[in-house]
Amino acid sequence: MTLEAMIDQLSRDEQLIAMELLWKRMTQHANPMAPPEWHRDVAARRVAAVENGEDTLSDWSDARKRLADRLR
User: Fold this and answer.
1) Which of 12, 29, 36, 54 could pair with 49 as two cysteines, CB 3.0-4.6 Å apart?
2) Tens digits of per-residue pLDDT, 32-68?
3) Which of 45, 53, 40, 55 is nearest to 63 (CA)?
4) Handedness of CA 23, 26, 27, 28 (dihedral sign)
């Protein structure tokens, strides 16, 4: 049985517990996980777009409201 199939057999609560256990283990290592290089590239492009006037920043509460409105 695959790991994915085993996870699918867990209840929602068991899946959340498993996720929390995995996250705890992953963050306890001496070498914390570094974000992938592409994250840095995306962030740099987004900063440049704001600095060049090609994009704007949004207040978090406004952004959340827009996202919630889209999902309705």
Assistant:
1) 54
2) 677 889 999 999 999 999 999 999 999 999 999 999 9
3) 55
4) positive
pTM of the model: 0.46
Residue with tokens 């978090």: 60
Q: What are phi and psi of 64, to 5 degrees?
A: -60, -40
**Max alpha carbon distance in the chain (Å)?**
52
Residue in this structure with the two tokens 């992953």, named with its chain if needed? 26
Output DSSP code: residue 11: -
Q: Is 18 helix (H, G, I), strand (E, B) or coil?
A: helix
CA 5/CA 64 separation, integer angstroms? 34
pLDDT in tens, 14-32: 999 999 999 898 888 766 6
